[in-house]
Structure formats: C-alpha cells, structure tokens
TrEMBL record:
Entry keyword Membrane: yes
Pfam families on file: CHAT
Keyword field contains Membrane: yes
Residues spanning the membrane: 820-841
UniProt keywords, alphabetically: Membrane, Signal, Transmembrane, Transmembrane helix
Organism expressing this protein natively: Mesoflavibacter profundi
Name by which UniProt lists this protein: CHAT domain-containing protein
Length: 850
C-alpha cells in the first residue's frame, strides 16, 4: 500500500509500554495500514486518544501527522467525507503550527493538500477548496514543481467551473497551458474544462484537440445535438473504466451527465436507469428498486444532482417531493460543513431552484384539493432558503445576547469577525496580486474555518433546547395580534408565487413571469432612476402603477390596516407604498389613491424573522451622525434642518461636521437606542463594495458584517442604502442588509438617490409622529401622508420619487388610532353616564321642590 512507506522508524512490535511515544504512534499507524477494517480503525481511534494528550516533541507531532494522513485517506475511501476533511485539516494545521517542513521533506501537497482540496470540492465548500488549492499552487511555484502546478490548475479550474465562475476558470487554464512539457492527458483535461466553460458562456468552443471525446461532447452539447453528445459521452465513460485507477465518483458523475442527455431526448426510462447506476456506484449496498433511506446518504454533491433529476421524471407529485426532500437533506449535510458566507450563498442558490420545482408541484395539488395544509407546506419550501444566511447570523447574535458570558459563543463570534477581516484582506491582496500574502491569508482563513467547524457541534448540542419554538403554526396568532395581513413573494425563474395570509384565511397564487410581467417590474423600477421621469408623464405612471398593483395581486387584500410585505428578487427594489389602487386621471399627487393611504406598510425579509421578532419598544434616545460635508461639492445643505427636527422631538446627541467620524460613532452608539446616519452612501459597483461616508473615511459593506450592534433602530438617511448586488434567495446585499447582519432588527433605509430637501422634510414628519405614536411603522407611513398633504410643497415635489424612497423593515404595531379611539370612546361613555346621573339628580331635586 502506497501509504505504508510513511512509517520509517519502526523497531519492533512490542507492547506500547516498552516503546517511546513517537515509535508507538508509527507502530499503531502501520498496524492499521496492514489491515484497514472498521475494527482496526476503532482500535486506532482509541490509541489516538491516548497519544494526543501526551504529545510533546516535534518528532512526536510528525508521527501524529502521518497518522492523521492515513486516517483521512481511509475515511475518504469509506465515504466518511466530513470526518476525512477533519483529519486532513488537523494534519495541515499541525504541519504549519509545529513547522514540520523543517524536519521532513514529505510531499505535503500530494498526500494532504490535494486530497483536502478535492474533498472540499466534493461537499461544495468552494471557498475553502479555493484557499487550499491556491496555497499548494503557491508552494509548487516556490518549489518549481510544474507537475503539481498543473495539477493545481486543473483542480482550481474545475472548482471555478463547478462554482459558475467560468471566466476565472478560463484564465487559470490559459495560464497553465503556457507551462512547458505538459503531459498530453493533463492538456486534454484542461482543454475539456475550458470547452465546458465556453459552452456555459455561450461562446464558440475552439480547440486543436479534435479527437478528444470530451471536447466533442461539449461541442455537440453547444449545438444542442444531444444524440451526438450522448455518443461522445459514452466514449468518455468507456475510457474512464479502461483506466488502471479511476474514481468511482467521477464515473457516477458521468452517469448523471448521461441521464441529463437522455432527459433532453425525452428518454425517461434510460434517464432513470443511468441515475440508478450512479446511485449503485455511490451506495454499493443500495436496493435499486426503491429510493435510498435518508440516513444512508452522506455529504456529496452528486447525490443532489441525482435526486433533482429523479424528481423531474416522477409521475407522482408525492414521489417527486420525496426525491427533492433527499436533495434538501444532502444539501443540509453539506451546508452544516460550510463556514464561509460565499460558499453558503452559492449553495443556497441551487436550493432555490429546487424550491421552485416543489412549489410548482404543490400549486398543482392546491388547485385540486384547496387545502390549507398544502399552503403551509408550500410556504415552508418557499421560506426554507429565503435569506438563509441572514437568519443564521441573526440566530447566532440572538444566542450571544441571551448568553453574553458564554465563552464558546464569545469565541465563535470573535472567529466570525476574524473571518470577515481576513476575507477583506484577502480580496485586497488578490487584487494587488500579492501571491505570498494570499497564501498566508488563505492559511489563516482555513484555520479559522476549522475552528468554527469544531465549535459548531458543541454549541448546537449545548443549546439544542434553546432553539426558538416559533413555527408556521404560530403565524395566524401573531398576525391576529398585530392586526396584520402578510404577503410573501417567491420570485422564481418561471413564476412569482404569492402567499397572502391573515389570522383566519390563506391564499396561494402564482403570477406567470413572462416578458410582459418582467417588463412591468423593470419599467416601474426605472421610474425612480430620475426625479423627472414621473413628472414628465404622470398619467402614464399612474396607469402603470395601478397595473402593477393588480399584477402583484394586492387588489385581493381587503382586511387589516397593517400590511406586511416580504418581497423577493427584483421586488426588493420596489416601494410598494407608491403603487396605485384605482385608475385615476388626476395629476394632483395629493389626490392620487396611493397604496400608502390604505395601509400601514411594513417590510420584512422572511416569515421566520417576522415570527421571531419581539414587539418593537419605543425609545427616543438618538445618536445623530451628520458629516454635512460643509464647503465641499458633497455638502448636504438641508442635513442641518434634519438634525434640528430630531433635536426638537427626541433626546439626541449629535456628531456634527468634523466630529462625525466612523470610530467615534461606533464607540458611542452602544449608549443609544437609535442610530441616525444622515450622510452620503453608494450602492457600489461590480468591483467596489457599497459604502456609507463618514467625515474621515468610508464604511464598506464587508466591514459592517463584523459589527455587533444592539440598537432598536437604525435610520440610514442617505442614498441607495437598500440597493446592492441581488443574490437569488438571499436578497439585496446592501448597506441595509449589512446592518441586519450586524444585529439590527428595525431599519429605515432608501431605495434610490434621495433628494436632500425632501428627505429632511420626511424625517421631520417621521420623528414628530414617532414620539406621538411610539411606532416606527406608523411614523414612516404618516410621515409620507403628511408630506403629500403639506400645502407648502409644490405638486411637482409630491411625486413619489420624493417621498416613497424610505422603507421600513421590522415589525408592525397596532395603529395608534386604535388606542386614541379607545380613549375617545371611554371619555364619551364617562360623559354620557355623568350626564345621565346629573339629569336623574336634577329631576329628583326638582321633584322635591315641587
């Protein structure tokens, strides 16, 4: 066995007590290697426990390093992927911590880093895979080992292809092909990955390797000649089986590709057979006449591809959902191993497509049965991967707030902050092409990831009983308490699904996402790109706003003053307040029937976040940050008016002009319940992250993630604070989302470039109403209505461009008028009783006088 040569210091197979520790570790490793069974592995684990607690010298650490490498290899072979990763990670971290490279020339790339990178890729941990592969490419370059550089390039290119980063993969391949003396098979592999990337980018495939069946397969696939593609793919599979050493996983993946081609040709039986073959390879003991038991599955991306395809070819909706549920289960196994937000985002993107397939099936079922249980089930699928990373982050911060002195939670939080900081440094180092620093930061990130993974099961086990008990069954009760109607949208590839829920009624509808609907949404968002677009064609705008109102099925809502909207996809960029409920010919904005006149509108990112939210508390303790940028081309002239309004209605402290520094703000913000930032902001570009400006520096989106904020409310009185890269399922990665990640539950922010004067007027109205109603949601609604009714504002400035930009994300409260009416009613009843008593007394007195 190739790993046996690692044991170089054996003297005899005497008892453990007659050997030193270093030799004992080597003996235990060699004994296991001569007979790798579950029984011998259990014995190795017992001995490992004894060894670890007694390790002292660097030679003992080297011996233990070899044990871990062999352990990782064995676990990988028996499909214990996550345990195998843990073994390799521990080996790599120990290798670096104890500087084992100084006492051995062992090929750490070949026997540790390459298998670790491949394992990360198998379970979809693309971020850690990228870090490890880049690390061993750097080491190979330092050692001038072209063979390992090429191997690294192949693995990195394949990783980028799997992750959908096709241009990155092509760059890696083109750089690798410049190396000299590349073996023909390696060159063919690089060319085939490049061909697949070009295919994905809809670009013409160019290659000199006309005999390579992988290239021919890709070319036929690009031409949608599926029969020819199938012939070439069969040749690829035949070649794989003919190799002396082949990967069972690679064979299984190619059977899945075969199945995909058969499905395109509508050969459903052949598709099913190929998928059964793939399952048999991954689960040799599986009975192919039924679906595998969920507990037999393990973290492996190929399973997800298999069950997703099986779901598509089922005749029964129930069977299809069973297949998709197995994909979701494997996905969760994988997701539990991921620590970086980037890997999770990519993983959740795929889950969203599967969620849509499940919603399609359940919508069909609902049309036939009309059962509320079907709606609840559909809502669970829609919710499962909606804002998943945000929900996880909020959960972690909530747990830390409940147990602020728990050392495990404190350590986890500090590691998450460190992970964010290292990621920011890595992005900069890669941009500047500082390869040595990239390698160093990648090593640090991998170490942090390992520590987070080791902490997770301990924390989960400790707080398993502390998990929030809120579920969809409690939703009607909460909606009744809040006197609210909730509308959740699921923005898919083919349809927008709409859930409309009150305490006693639920509906489940879908909107066909055709060109007409897409254009309606896009055109409506475009109205708010410029201050004059609406004013230049008011009647066209009112028509479009009313059409979209109906398209989004808001005309079906009849009850409750409070309306909670959970948008999705491009609907995140729409201010629903500005939609119009009835056709109108008026050009007087004050008289237009905007939706805000009918409802007190609150937004949220998820049903579960709404369920877990507590009743908002009133507070008027405000830290106002106003850089103003006086005497510059960025000066905010009306920002001073805004500050004066806040000062008039609240208990506020202000950081003005030069005092409005980033460091000062976050030092002082903990002493205030409300943070009000009146400044400039930018939604960012493809290469530059979103940022918000302070007097001394910019605060970038990635930096906000690492903040720990407990403020009741953050008001982002600046441009485009709700605009950012739209990630399917997770939403808009905006500045506002950054503050949500930081722990803020109530946010007021903007959806486009806001006007300085109108913003100051809206904020004046907001704080004035806020101290009266003690409700953010009511104050945000009333501030806009007051603005529309203000006779001192000219009609052109009452365009929704000026007043509807600011949206409130949080929880609603009962309308203030309810309380007011109770007091009025109580006063009237008291007066009536008093008047009646007065009449009775007077009548008696008059009777006596008579």
């Amino acid at each position: 066995m190739k790993y046996s040569f690692l044991v170089i210091l054996l003297f005899s197979f005497t008892t453990l007590f007659s050997q030193n520790l270093e030799e004992a570790i080597y003996v235990a490793t060699e004994t296991f290697n001569t007979n790798r069974t579950s029984k011998s592995y259990d014995l190795l684990l017992k001995k490992e426990t004894e060894f670890v607690s007694n390790l002292n010298t660097i030679d003992e650490q080297l011996a233990y390093f070899f044990l871990l490498i062999n352990k990782g290899h064995y676990l990988d072979n028996i499909n214990k992927k996550t345990q195998s990763i843990t073994a390799y990670e521990t080996a790599w971290n120990n290798y670096n911590q104890f500087k084992l490279n100084e006492i051995t020339d062992y090929d750490v790339i070949e026997y540790c880093l390459k298998p670790l990178g491949i394992l990360y890729n198998k379970i979809g941990d693309f971020t850690n895979a990228e870090h490890i592969i880049k690390q061993y490419i750097y080491l190979a370059e330092q050692n001038k080992n072209n063979s390992q550089r090429i191997a690294g390039a192949i693995n990195l290119a394949q990783l980028y292809y799997t992750a959908g980063r096709f241009n990155n993969a092509i760059l890696v391949i083109e750089k690798a092909l410049e190396l000299k003396n590349i073996p023909l098979k390696k060159q063919e592999l690089l060319e085939s990955i490049k061909a697949n990337c070009l295919l994905a980018l809809n670009k013409k495939i160019t290659s000199n390797q006309t005999t390579n069946p992988k290239i021919k397969y890709a070319e036929a696939l690009q031409k949608e000649d599926y029969k020819t593609a199938l012939l070439h793919l069969r040749q690829v599979i035949t070649n794989l089986y003919a190799q002396d050493k082949f990967s069972a996983r690679d064979i299984a993946k190619h059977h899945v590709l075969n199945a995909q081609l058969h499905l395109k040709l509508n050969h459903k039986n052949a598709c099913a057979l190929e998928l059964k073959n793939a399952l048999k390879i991954l689960l040799p003991n599986h009975d192919n006449n039924k679906l595998p038991d969920i507990l037999d599955l393990y973290p492996e991306n190929t399973f997800i591809d298999i069950f997703d395809l099986l779901g598509q070819i089922q005749l029964s909706n129930t069977n299809a959902l069973d297949c998709y549920d197995r994909s979701f289960y494997v996905s969760k196994l994988i997701n539990d191993q991921l620590t970086s937000p980037e890997s999770k985002l990519l993983h959740n993107y795929k889950n969203r497509n599967r969620s849509e397939a499940c919603l399609d099936l359940l919508y069909e079922e609902y049309q036939i049965l009309k059962q509320n249980t079907t709606i609840t089930k559909a809502l669970q699928y829609a919710e499962r991967y909606k804002s998943a990373i945000l929900k996880e982050t909020v959960s972690k911060k909530s747990l830390l707030n409940l147990h602020p002195k728990d050392s495990l939670l404190i350590k986890e939080n500090s590691l998450l902050i460190k992970q964010t900081e290292l990621t920011n440094q890595l992005i900069k180092a890669e941009f500047l092409k500082q390869s040595e620093l990239v390698s160093k930061l990648s090593l640090s990130l991998n170490k942090v990831s390992t520590q987070l993974k080791n902490l997770k099961p301990i924390i989960d086990n400790k707080y398993s009983t502390s998990v929030n008990q809120n579920s969809f069954e409690t939703l009607p009760k909460k909606l009744k308490k809040d006197k609210a109607t909730l509308v959740q949208y699921f923005y898919g590839n083919n349809h927008i699904y709409v859930f409309t829920l009150t305490h006693n009624k639920s509906t489940f509808n879908k909107i066909k996402l055709d060109r007409n609907t897409t254009n309606q949404i896009a055109n409506y968002i475009d109205y708010f790109n410029d201050a004059n677009r609406i004013n230049n064609k008011i009647n066209t705008y009112t028509t479009d706003a009313n059409k979209l109102y109906k398209t989004l099925l808001l005309d079906k809502i009849k009850s409750n003053k409070n309306l909670i909207i959970i948008p999705d996809g491009f609907l995140n960029f729409i201010a629903f307040e500005s939609l119009i409920t009835q056709p109108t010919n008026t050009t007087n904005y004050s008289n237009i029937p905007f939706l805000i006149k009918d409802f007190n509108i609150t937004y949220n990112t998820s049903v579960m976040l709404y369920l877990e939210s507590s009743k908002p508390k009133f507070t008027n303790s405000v830290l106002g940050v106003f850089p103003v940028f006086k005497n510059s081309n960025k000066e905010l002239n009306y920002s001073i008016n805004e500050a004066e309004s806040i000062d008039k209605y609240t208990d506020a402290k202000f950081l003005m002009y030069n005092d409005a520094k980033m460091h000062t703000t976050f030092n002082e913000v903990k002493d205030f319940s409300i943070l009000h930032l009146s400044t400039h902001a930018n939604a960012g570009t493809f290469s530059t992250p979103a940022y918000i400006e302070f007097n001394d520096k910019n605060l970038y989106l990635n930096e906000i993630y690492s903040k720990q904020l407990n403020n009741q409310l953050v008001v982002l009185s600046a441009c485009e604070t709700g605009i950012g890269q739209l990630i399917k399922g997770e939403g808009s990665l905006s500045l506002a989302r950054g503050f949500q990640y930081a722990g803020v539950n109530q946010l007021l922010f903007s959806l486009w470039k806001v006007n300085d004067l109108s913003t100051s007027q809206i904020m004046h109205n907001f704080y004035k109403t806020y101290v009266k109603s003690k409700s953010v949601s009511i104050a945000n609604t009333q501030s806009k209505i007051d603005y529309l009714q203000d006779k001192t504002i000219v009609n052109a400035k009452k365009s929704p461009y000026y007043w509807s930009a600011f949206v409130y994300y949080g929880s609603p409260t009962k309308h203030a008028n309810n309380t007011y009416l109770k007091y009025v009613l109580f006063t009237l009843i008291t007066l009536s009783i008093g008047l009646l008593l007065w009449k009775i007394i007077r009548k008696k007195l008059n009777g006596r006088q008579a």
